[in-house]
Amino acid sequence: MSKFKKKKSGDLPAISTASLPDIVFMLLFFFMVATVMRENTLMIQNDLPYADQVEKLQKKDLVMYVYAGKPSARYQRQYGTEARVQLNDKFADVSDIKQFIIEERESKREELKSKLTTSLKVDGETNMGLVSDIKYELRRAEAYRINYTTRKGDAAQNMQ
Amino acid sequence: MAKRSAPEVNAGSMADIAFLLLIFFLVTTTIETDAGLNRKLPPIQEEPQDPPPLKKKNIFQVLINQQNDLLVEEKEMELSDLRQAAIDFLDNGGQGCEYCQGKGDPASSDNPNKAVILLENTRETDYSMYIAIQNELVAAYNFLRNREANRLFGMSFTEMEANFNDAQYNGNKELLEDRIGTIRDMFPLKLSEAEPKESK
């Protein structure tokens, strides 16, 4: 009997966690390489629609971002549920877009000014009325190159 | 002196440090969506000019109402059929188009240079629907441009454009630009958007 007892009383060997840091570092490096720092804190819902005929935006520093959508849940009490425009970190009025574009353009070098693109990051549920107003303001600011930023996927997914 | 072994450094907290860094990066970064549909807006015209005369058969009218229903050439249509309808219209080749492969229907467009797609939407239309329509229309153009590019140069148009924009591409970029221009002239993107209507 004592033979069997002796076997049972043996402690479980501790699992070596020596390689855990390596695994975590591997994940860390993956995320450091594959992602970029957040530039703006979004105050709106921003579920972009899907499209599959997309082209990549070329130079990151030559892109101006205009966001639009419903205020996200924690801002709804203050700002309501009507879709709004966000520029940089603040809610803005449609009429502020022209000034924003002009300021962005001034901060770029002369020879690059004609290559500036405006990226419209608009929530899929937004009405076209707001988008048309934004586009009209962009035309007033002479920012004619735009990009409807989308997620890659089948366009039929937009209908759901 | 007796050989003294260096005391082993305890690496148990290394994982914690790495986790801390990992979580920091997870929170402060995003995987950017940096692709989309490129468009060029028309300049604002101070005085309304007379529109150039267009034959009605050269206009492909696409209407979207506030319920996101699609009306193409005065007929209701599903989104999935729009791409083929646009291809048929652009590629019809009624007259003056040697490379078109359409039916040559006299009631449809003369040639891709004259064919205009007119997109109209209301202010209540959803943005996602609008993007879906734009996507299908761009797809129609891309399909035709790819076909011609494959026939003439043995390379699809989207591939040519991707190479042209790729800084590491080491082919002849001038030739490529020339070819892209040729294809663009064969099927120029003529997509006109009307000011959205107030729905009644």
UniProtKB/TrEMBL annotation, chain A:
Keywords: Cell membrane, Membrane, Protein transport, Transmembrane, Transmembrane helix, Transport
Compartments (UniProt record): Cell membrane
Transmembrane parts of this sequence: 12-37
Membrane-related topology note: Single-pass membrane protein; Single-pass type II membrane protein
Any coiled-coil regions, as ranges: none
Family affiliation: Belongs to the ExbD/TolR family.
UniProt name for this protein: Biopolymer transporter ExbD
Native species: Mesonia aestuariivivens
TrEMBL record, chain B:
Bilayer disposition of the protein: Single-pass membrane protein; Single-pass type II membrane protein
Primary localization: membrane
InterPro entries to which the protein is assigned, alphabetical: ExbD
Places the protein is found: Cell membrane
Domain of life: Bacteria
Keywords: Cell membrane, Membrane, Protein transport, Transmembrane, Transmembrane helix, Transport
Recorded family membership: Belongs to the ExbD/TolR family.
Protein's recorded name: Biopolymer transporter ExbD
Organism: Mesonia aestuariivivens
